[in-house]
Amino acid sequence: MSAASARNPSRLAAARQRAEDAKAALATGAVVLFSATGLAVAATHPGHHKASSVVREQSEEDADESGSLGGGTIAPATSAPAASTSLS
Amino acid sequence: VSSVARFRSMGCEVLVAGATPAELACVEVLFEERDRIFSRFRPESELNRVNAAGGRFVRVSAQFARAVRTSLESAAATRGVLDPTLGAAIEAAGYDADFSRLRRDDPRPAGDAAPGCWRRVRATSFGVQLPRGVRLDLNGVVKAMAVDDAAALLDGDGYVSAGGDLAARGELTVAVPGGDAVRLVAGGLATSGSGKRRWLRGDEIQHHLIDSRTGRPAASPWEQVTACGASCFAADAAAKLGYLLGRRGSEELDARGIPAQFVDPDGVVVENRCWRDAVAEPVCA
Asked: CB-CB: which of A58, A75, A80 is closest to B118?
């Protein structure tokens, strides 16, 4: 057996080892990426895992008492009325 | 405010002041569109299509979804005193045609009471599902929203008014029931009551302000209530709330920071604290 042919098995083994290492790294990366994506989706779209949250019945917790029914501003009249509010 | 244009829509007279011809045309189109969508008296309206769905989920326009969402928020904010699901109740009371064509002394008794059930309405941004037999009446909400939307179309000072609901651009002096006047600085003014839209069914007086608990026209010590809200929609909701809550109305609107005045059937005017504080003339030292 020549010196060159004696070197071949070890080079093949080394190449196989590098291929195995690369596969393992790719698999780990995929798992990490998948988990990170899942966490990001859960954080940015809370509640989307519940199908019923899109169509929901109403509750008093939906109320925004300060927003929709807030008061306006009136002051003493300083001129003759230009309009009126009355029943029609 | 100079020229005032008038036209009829949504069962009442609409007044528009300070609008250019182009703005006035837009306002008329807006009211016509809302009437076409929300009228109880147009068989082809979107409202009647939803009411006839028999418990099925119905796709609706964005404008319809917005009105339903707003009315349900209003119901939640008033713990159901203002309820959009009283369409069957108001028809049972006899208000089943345009008021100008309504028979005012019908000898037939009122139909079955239909209490509100707003919590059972399912709504999304594109569809609505009502329980079987339940009918929406969005007229009050929609008229006030139309006034707000129309006033927003005006570039300069002016106002839009429809059936007691008023929104202004710029400050405006407004005559209110009881013979007084106030300066509207911000928001809207609205008057609601049973003084005008009333009729007889089987010798019993009926009107359009329904008690959501009983499904019958409300018994209130007030003939009309005027309120000033952050918008015309808020003012209209507050005026109805004040009427429907009866003697508790004044205190409730004070707690919400809403100026309001109440007129009883004898013409006696009661102002809540917010109204009194707002219109009190400053005392010189």
From this structure: A58
Residue contact A88–B17, C-beta within 8 A? no
> A15-24, A45-54, B117-126 — which one is most confidently predicted on average?
B117-126
Q: Is the pLDDT of residue A81 over 80?
A: yes
ipTM summary value: 0.90
pLDDT, tens digit (0-9, with 9 covering 90-100), for B53-109: 999 999 999 999 999 999 999 999 999 999 999 999 999 988 888 888 888 888 888
Identify the residue whose tokens are 């009190």: B280
Read off φ and ψ for residue B208, nearest 5 degrees: -95, 0
Of B79, B122, B238, the CB nearest to A57: B122
Residue B203: burial class (beta carbons within 10 Å; 0-12, 13-18, 19+): exposed
Residue numbers in B near A82 (CB within 8 A): 1, 17, 159, 172-174
